[in-house]
Amino acid sequence: MLLLPATLTAHEARDTLRMLKQALQAEGSETAVVVDAGPLQHFDSAALAVLLEIDRLAEAWGRRFAIRSAPAKLAALAKLYGVDALLLKPEDRDAAPAPLRADQRRPAT
């Protein structure tokens, strides 16, 4: 199982992706690729990019891909960017709050 760090923003994305690729190559090729996103606390859209790249690699190697313990905010971000169906299990997608429309957001003060 691959473990995401507590912080995964654009600043950490390159190093995190390199670390995950190394761990992925060290795992047996017969196993599914499971990423534990439980530790994620501070992240941005770069976290989605990293996960999409790991998913792409898993598919290229003929392995299944899954994310475990996705935080609700990650699920909401994936939904906002339209990649929730690619990354998340149906129950995680359903638990994600819908992104606010422009007319629902509070005005900046």
For the structure shown, list the relevant keywords:
globular; alpha/beta; 109 residues
Structure, described:
49% of the residues lie in helices and 13% in strands. The protein is an alpha/beta fold and 109 residues long. The chain has a 3-stranded parallel beta sheet. The protein has a two-stranded parallel sheet with strand order 2-4. The N and C termini lie far apart (44 Å). The mean pLDDT is 85.
Please write out the topology.
Layout: E1 2-3, E2 7-8, H1 10-26, E3 33-36, E4 42-43, H2 45-60, E5 65-68, H3 72-81, H4 84-87, H5 90-95
Parallel strand pairs: 1-3, 2-4, 3-5
Helix pairs in contact: 1-2
Say how many strands there are. 5
**Averaged pLDDT, please?**
85
> What fraction of residues sit in β-strands?
5-15%
Large-scale geometry: globular
What is the H-and-E element order?
EEHEEHEHHH
Q: Unreliable segments (pLDDT under 50, ≥5 consecutive)?
A: none
